[in-house]
């Protein structure tokens, strides 16, 4: 990463944090279907892209240099969140430890190699250890031991919602907004923003996780009142599961100049095409990035 890249990333994060980000600049008509725009968050920066930039901008506000020495966070060996966190930490000159699910592989995945190149420490956790990542007692213990700000897997949590809340200002101009969901943090942040604006936009989340309805039932009480929403199961039987139909769709969009990732945005597009729009509703799709993960062939 060059000094120029680091400077651009700092600028991007400040704009997101201060509510000065120009969303419209990254919005374009979808090349395949009418009445549909796509917000190209994959283009906000080549090294820090997608909704992970939004979530980390919010977490940046929680990092008080007098209180914390470093950041600790979690992810798998192809994690978009770890990749983004390492770019973020490099640009802001914050020491980062990545707690990685599984055993060290030789060679490292390209994702983890980038993290290491940008100065992150990689610590591998076995299945039992990694399973404790949601345990608040464990997180507290890690925070104390390392004087660290602990960011949950995926950048989830209230802090991660901040820039997503701001994004609602742009989303409110559409009848519907479709996005891919993992932890659901991005969608919740947008929903809270929509509620604050009293906007009527309906949120449709395509769930990339095969979670047996967990996200849907969590949202029954977490989603703010007055916001219309729907969860569509888009996991194709499992997280990161591939099918020939998905592969065909990704190649088709690649040829139209719209790169999609296989885990999230490809599945979003598959679900959107299946829903056969075109009833005159104005729809916004959010391209949440994740293209670095396509190196896992
Ligand atoms: C992490 C990620 C998501 C899921 O975001 P949540 O806020 O966890 O729902 C969606 N798309 C891409 C490309 C991601 O990397």
Task: Please give a structural write-up.
This protein is of the alpha/beta class. It is 39% helix and 17% strand. It contains eleven helices and ten strands. The strands form two sheets. The protein has a six-stranded mixed sheet, with helices on both faces. The protein has a four-stranded parallel sheet with strand order 5-4-3-6, sandwiched between helices. Strand 3, helix 3 (80-92) and strand 4 (96-101) form a beta-alpha-beta unit. The radius of gyration is 18 Å and the shape is globular.
Span between N and C termini? 24 Å
User: Percent helix among the residues?
Assistant: 25-40%
Low-pLDDT ranges: none
Following the backbone from N to C, one meets helices and strands in this order, namely: HEEHEHEHEHHEHEHEHEHHE
Largest sheet: 6 strands, mixed
Beta-strand proportion = 15-25%
Shape: globular
Number of strands: 10
Give descriptors for this structure:
single chain, 297 residues, six-stranded mixed sheet, four-stranded parallel sheet, 10 strands, binds pyridoxal-5'-phosphate
In short:
The chain has 297 residues and is an alpha/beta fold.
Task: Note the topology.
Blueprint (H helix, E strand, L loop, with lengths): L2 H15 L9 E3 L6 E5 L10 H12 L7 E6 L4 H13 L3 E6 L8 H8 L3 E5 L1 H4 L5 H11 L1 E4 L10 H10 L4 E6 L3 H13 L4 E6 L6 H9 L6 E5 L10 H12 L9 H10 L8 E5 L10
Parallel strand pairs: 2-10, 3-4, 3-6, 4-5, 7-8, 7-10, 8-9
Antiparallel strand pairs: 1-2
